[in-house]
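Q: Sequence in, structure out?
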Amino acid sequence: MTDVTELEQRIITALDRIEYSADQIASAPAAPDADMVEELEIERDTNARLVESGQQNLARIERLETRVARLTDRLEFMDGENKRLQAVMGALRETNKQLRGANAEHQGADAAINTALETENEALHAARTADLAELDDILSEIAPLVKEG
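A: Exactly. Output:
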């Protein structure tokens, strides 16, 4: 009987080893599928490109925001200067009107004063025209940025 008991013990040991090996095989990760690995690499490359593109877009947005802020500050400054120029020109017009009236009454050497005032008025008009041209330049730079935004 010892032979049967011994054989039974050997069979039980062999079955335990088989069960252990089957558990090890079942719990081991499966070999990756070549198609899945290729798809994963494609997705990783696509993701890396998207991240890089996103970072480039963020950098571009930051540059554009900085540029818009700078141009906005410049435009506000020019608007203030334009308002000041309009006020000065209004005062100059009134002064010229008064001087012309006084000059018409006295008809003397005041013709030179009148000519000087007209020249100054023309100079101020030219300065205003230049300022308006600069404002137009600023607006032409801002317009594409507004359309993009």
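Residues 71-148 form one domain.
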